[in-house]
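lol forgot to send this yesterday, sorry. struct tokens for the thing we talked abt
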């Protein structure tokens, strides 16, 4: 395969760069090579951490990453709200990363009764009281947006409930989100392409989840590479009707030219 055709590389993080907070074999050098080749953007559905925190943790592992290269679902949600509606009053149901990104885009964090929007993401401190506050905001006229619908989230001790569990709890009260920005939404990939400054056909998406990374990027018009170092495999992708452009054992193999064409 020839990566020279691409001006930008959009990379997932978990399962592509790291596993259990440790770099995958060869991943650091692979990202360094891609950085010399073009623009690298990291696209993650994780809404729990600020972009600065994500970049700092990866940099500590040796990855040449800066804040401006990181696109989280919290950042995309805050950015899209600002684009469409200007600065708004928000009651967030989520962790510090979501709160910080909303505030950074000029939105005001307020009490539930004053909120114009409820924005929800993964929340490992979710309580019945938080759901009740969200319900009061929605009953008072607030609109609802979500960062992503990931069913689970990988940790060192295994999978835990993801943002989808939080979104589902609010939907269970009768309020489906007006929009969901995280992968596989095209909104996430458009945001990554905007940060990279390229058109879809100039970028390659590298991910390990066929149903989010590959399906969403393909719908956005991007070439895709499925790496088998995370949770997905080619049989699953084919069963879902999601066929990547390339498949490789991991990011290092992809960069070494060992990716195989699937189409």
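and heres what i got for the seq, position by position
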């Amino acid at each position: 395969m020839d990566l020279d055709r691409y001006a930008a590389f959009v990379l997932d993080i978990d399962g592509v760069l790291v596993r259990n907070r440790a770099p995958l074999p060869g991943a650091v050098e692979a990202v360094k090579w891609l950085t010399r080749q073009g623009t690298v953007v990291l696209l993650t559905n994780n809404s729990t951490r600020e972009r600065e925190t994500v970049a700092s943790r990866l940099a500590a592992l040796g990855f040449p990453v800066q804040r401006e290269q990181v696109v989280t679902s919290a950042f995309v949600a805050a950015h899209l709200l600002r684009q469409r509606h200007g600065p708004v009053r928000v009651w967030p149901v989520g962790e510090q990363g979501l709160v910080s990104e909303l505030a950074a885009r000029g939105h005001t964090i307020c009490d539930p009764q004053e909120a114009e929007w409820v924005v929800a993401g993964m929340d490992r401190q979710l309580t019945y009281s938080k759901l009740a506050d969200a319900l009061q905001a929605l009953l008072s006229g607030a609109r609802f947006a979500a960062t992503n619908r990931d069913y689970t989230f990988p940790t060192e001790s295994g999978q835990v409930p993801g943002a989808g569990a939080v979104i589902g709890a609010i939907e269970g009260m009768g309020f489906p989100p007006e929009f969901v920005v995280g992968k596989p939404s095209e909104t996430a990939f458009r945001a990554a392409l905007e940060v990279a400054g390229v058109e879809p056909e100039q970028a390659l998406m590298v991910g390990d989840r066929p149903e989010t990374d590959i399906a969403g990027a393909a719908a956005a018009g991007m070439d895709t590479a499925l790496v088998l170092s995370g949770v997905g495999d080619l049989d699953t992708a084919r069963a879902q009707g999601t066929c990547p452009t390339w498949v490789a054992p991991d990011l290092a193999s992809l960069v070494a030219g060992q990716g195989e064409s699937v189409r």
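The mean pLDDT is 94. anyway ping me if u want another try
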